[in-house]
Design a protein that fits this description.
Elements: H1 6-15, H2 17-22, E1 24-31, E2 35-36, E3 39-40, E4 47-55, E5 60-68, E6 77-90, E7 93-104, E8 109-120, E9 123-130, E10 137-144, E11 152-160, H3 162-168, E12 175-184, E13 189-196, E14 208-215
Antiparallel strand pairs: 1-4, 1-14, 2-3, 4-5, 5-6, 6-7, 7-8, 8-9, 9-10, 10-11, 11-12, 12-13, 13-14
Length: 216
C-alpha cells in the first residue's frame, strides 16, 4: 500500500464541490491536555484541535484532524487523515472499517493503521493494527452508561500489544481504564472530560483533562 494514499484522497473529498454538497461537518476545540490511548501527548499543556469530516450521505466518510502536541522535541502538531465506511447492519449495530494515517509537522508518514469498530447498542469495540507491523495493535472497549441522563458517561478499557506500548509512549502500561464524560451546553457547544485510572493514585493533574468543543 502506498504511504501517500490517504492525504490526496482526503483533499479531493473534502474540498471538491461534490463533497460540499454531500455534507461536510467539523469541530474546533481546546483541551487542558491531549490524551491519546491513555498517554498525554502535550505534556500537561492545553491543546487546540480542529477536525473536518466529509460524509457521502451513505456510509462513506473521510476526515482530517490536527492538534497541538509537545514531546520535548521539534514536533508541535499532529495531523491525522482517515477514511472509512460505516455499515448499518441493524438499528443497534454498526460495523465501521477504515484506514488512518498519523503524521507530524513535516507531513511525512509516521504511522498508518487499519481499524475495525463494532457499535452494538451502548457497547463499542475497536481494534487498530499497524499496516507495516501487524504485531503493533491496540484494542479498546467502551460502554455508555444508560442510566445517566444529564450527561454522557462512558467507561473504557484498552490494551496495547507489548510491541505497541513503547511506541505509543505507554511504557510498561499496556492496559488502562478510564472514564469519558460529555455534556451538550448548546446545540453547537459541548463540554468534555477524560479521567484516566492513574487519577485514583493522587495524580489527577497528570491523568485528567477537560475541554470545550464547538461543532459546526
Amino acid at each position: 500500500m502506498k504511504k501517500y494514499f490517504v492525504l490526496p484522497a482526503l483533499l479531493v473529498a473534502l474540498f471538491s464541490p461534490f463533497a460540499v454538497n454531500a455534507g461536510v461537518q467539523g469541530s474546533v476545540g481546546v483541551d487542558s491536555d491531549y490524551f491519546w490511548r491513555g498517554v498525554s501527548q502535550n505534556n500537561g499543556n492545553p491543546s487546540l484541535n480542529l477536525n473536518l469530516e466529509y460524509h457521502d450521505g451513505g456510509g462513506l466518510y473521510a476526515g482530517a484532524w490536527v492538534g497541538q502536541v509537545n514531546y520535548g522535541g521539534d514536533k508541535d502538531h499532529e495531523f491525522d487523515f482517515y477514511a472509512g465506511y460505516a455499515l448499518s447492519i441493524t438499528d443497534a449495530m454498526i460495523l465501521d472499517v477504515g484506514l488512518i494515517h498519523y503524521t507530524y509537522d513535516t507531513l511525512k508518514p509516521d504511522l498508518e493503521e487499519v481499524y475495525a469498530k463494532l457499535h452494538l447498542g451502548n457497547w463499542s469495540f475497536s481494534h487498530h493494527m499497524d499496516i507495516d507491523n501487524t504485531d503493533h495493535t491496540f484494542t479498546e472497549v467502551e460502554y455508555l452508561l444508560p442510566f445517566v441522563s444529564q450527561l454522557d458517561v462512558s467507561l473504557l478499557a484498552a490494551m496495547h500489544s507489548e510491541e505497541n506500548a513503547a511506541i505509543a509512549g505507554a511504557g510498561e502500561n499496556e492496559k488502562y481504564v478510564g472514564i469519558k464524560l460529555s455534556k451538550d451546553i448548546t446545540s453547537n457547544l459541548s463540554l468534555n472530560a477524560m479521567i484516566m485510572d492513574g487519577a485514583r493514585h493522587g495524580e489527577v493533574m497528570d491523568n485528567a483533562s477537560v475541554g470545550f468543543q464547538y461543532n459546526f
